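Dear colleagues,

For the upcoming journal club I promised to circulate an example of a predicted protein-ligand complex. I picked one with S-adenosyl-L-homocysteine because it came up in last month's discussion. The inputs are reproduced below in full, followed by the predicted structure.
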Amino acid sequence: MPIPGQIDPVPTPRDITPRADGRVDLLGLPRLRIAELFAAAGLDAKAAKLRAKQVFHWLYHRGVTDFDAMTDIAKTMRPWLAERFVIGRPEIVLAQHSTDGTRKWLLKTDDGHEYEMVFIPDADRGTLCVSSQVGCTLNCRFCHTGTMRLVRNLTPGEIVGQVMLARDALGEWPKGSMAGLDEVEDEDGGGYTPDGRLLTNIVMMGMGEPLYNFDNVRDALKLVMDGDGLALSKRRITLSTSGVVPMMARCGAEIGVNLAVSLHATNKAVRDEIVPINRKYGLEELLAACADYPGASNARRITFEYVMLKDKNDSDADARELVRLIKQYRLPAKVNLIPFNPWPGAIYECSTPERVRRFSDIVFEAGISAPVRTPRGRDIDAACGQLKTAAQKMSRAELDRLADEKQAALG
Ligand code: SAH
Ligand code: SF4
């Protein structure tokens, strides 16, 4: 099986994808680019810069999609903007609500590719699981996304658009006048925000390998972290990688979010089998890169994800080896034990609950936090990549009907 290189040559639309009506979608663009476009459309440099700042605020901080609602922009200016620009959102193909509160959306790019996002509410936080690619090139053996052909990288607009769509659906844009609305960065790293928001955390753990789409993921997360944008603290954002070692330092330096690493095995033979990128970047290299990850500390630990596969990686010896490795590399780490979520055709089974508990106890007794992640949204196929598959089995008419119903429900 070919293992892709550091930079995957997958086609990505340009930052501005031409629309049939000739207008330009501003979603996903940074202030400077918006100013450039305004200048190219005829505004002088100073006006372009000012209008870009205003539009940026309305777009990312207030979630406004209609130029007419941008009340600090002159009334005569608004139609000028609307003739040339739009503020879009990813198209919703299907939205589902689990009995446990988990919500899942199947989305579609303008060129017809489907991808998904999941919102998981907990007692003290609400986490949005965001996709970075359509499919994935990495073929981890237990992962359903890995069985899909990679179609392409998502653009910054398609990535940040997921967060914006979630805020739309949850009705969580700041309201009222612009005065005093600048978000204060909240750095406590846990719990709902004081203003009672539901969406408090973001994990780049949806479809795709975010470090194979580094530039777009970085640009999107910058908009999410911008104080005048979505204003979410970097401490509330976690990027999960299967181990793209050469990009990890840049991730720390240029994005600065929390890091999660899909470890899943403690020796070369098993990791080579289940996470094939290990054949390219081995365990030692990976753990050394974790030890060097900028910003990692006891207060900001690296999360090691470990999917529990029956008789594959779940023995007492595996748990002890995991502890040994974490100690050997002096990693400020916590371990997330993920019960394997089966999908049709998967060749693995989930470890028994007793085995998972025992594994967790061994790691925990060594002084390392090792919670078992509760599976969420099973009734709506919330496992990675499964909504897309479930939707493909439905007829077009059925999907259209569901999408209409959901759009209506979202108001
Ligand atoms: N590509 C990145 C991020 C997306 S996958 C990565 O691999 O880290 C997010 C997490 O879900 C990873 O830890 C992945 O290993 C895990 N995962 C994938 N398929 C799973 C399944 N069927 N059951 C449980 N966890 C799974
Ligand atoms: Fe890709 Fe992550 Fe799935 Fe591996 S686990 S195939 S890297 S999405």
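Two points we might discuss: The pocket of iron/sulfur cluster (ligand 2) is lined by residues 136, 138-140, 143, 145-146, 208-209, 242, 262 (CB under 6 Å). The chain has two domains: 24-86, 91-409.

See you all on Thursday,
B. R.
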